[in-house]
Design brief:
Two copies of one chain form a homodimer.
Chain A lengths: L4 H16 L7 H8 L3 H13 L3 E4 L5 E4 L8 H5 L26 H17 L2 H10 L6
Helix pairs in contact in A: 1-2, 1-3, 1-6, 2-3
Chain B binds a DNA duplex (30 and 30 nucleotides) through helix 3.
DNA sequence: TCAGTTTATCATATCATCATGATGTTAGCA
DNA sequence: TGCTAACATCATGATGATATGATAAACTGA
């Protein structure tokens, strides 16, 4: 539901890095193995996150990826945003000019739901999700 | 956001049919012209809705598409469901085995949001959206 | 400086979705 | 019956997302 597989991988990777990266950069190979995700494709995805200022990358031995900010400063929207389709429209039926001024038939009802979802991504941080770990353990993100 | 273009077209088409179909079937050509949607592709989409029991189709002169049920019996989930990707998983990060028993890190927080969205599609009917028309007029759905 | 490790990137392949055009099928009506 | 209007479907192509393999670039440590 709702996130393409690239964005899903990005989120899982960031959670993995946040969890495992306490003592230095995490290598793509480790992340790829853990997520069972194709290495080079993941590399491209993580590089996009680095460009977006979510991660920092370093090459060579001791290289890898780290969070660019502490987990409690990292909202999910920042992780997922770079992989949202360009014209991520807010209109349920895809009308380009839909808005409060020219609402489509679904606009008002849907806007409330969309706001809740947007809030989730904007308010929830990586740290929030990591906290879940103590409550109910789970092997991989 | 959240509906692929086929599902968006399906919903717009159903709203159009509900609005225009008071006196008999509505022709694909009319719908396609109104939605600016490719005729044959729309035909295929509407046929899928007919198979799903949302619409009834008739060929030949005086043919076209009609709602199979009154608009207040037609939840949006029925319109949109046939075009949701097969494995419409509920897990935010796409883990197949995610659930209350084996939650992913995001599961509990996300489940509440997902339930709200699902509620929207399950509870909102085509009639609900048509009622909007009187409050704030809009040319096309 | 050199060797080895690691990310960065390019060219290409694969697949699903979206779309088009041509043709088939069914129904109404004279 | 035969004409015409309308949906149904098939073969094909375009596009973007996903993925793979090869190669380049950068860093570390000796």
């Amino acid at each position: 539901m709702w996130l393409n597989s690239t964005a899903q991988n990005a989120l899982r990777a960031v959670l993995y890095i946040a969890d495992q990266g306490a003592h230095g950069p995490v290598r793509v190979d480790d992340i790829a193995a853990s997520l069972r995700s194709p290495r080079n494709y993941l590399s491209k995805t993580l590089h996009a996150l680095a460009r977006a200022g979510v991660l920092r990358s370093a090459r060579g031995p001791k290289g890898g990826f780290q969070l660019a900010d502490p987990p409690d400063r990292l909202a999910l929207s920042r992780v997922v945003g770079p992989f949202a389709p360009a014209g991520e429209r807010r209109c349920l039926v895809g009308r380009a000019d839909c808005g409060n001024a020219h609402p489509c038939l679904a606009h008002h009802r849907w806007a409330r739901v969309a706001a809740i979802v947007e809030d989730f991504f904007g308010q929830t941080t990586v740290a929030d999700l990591l906290k879940q770990t103590t409550e109910s353990r789970s092997h991989s993100p």
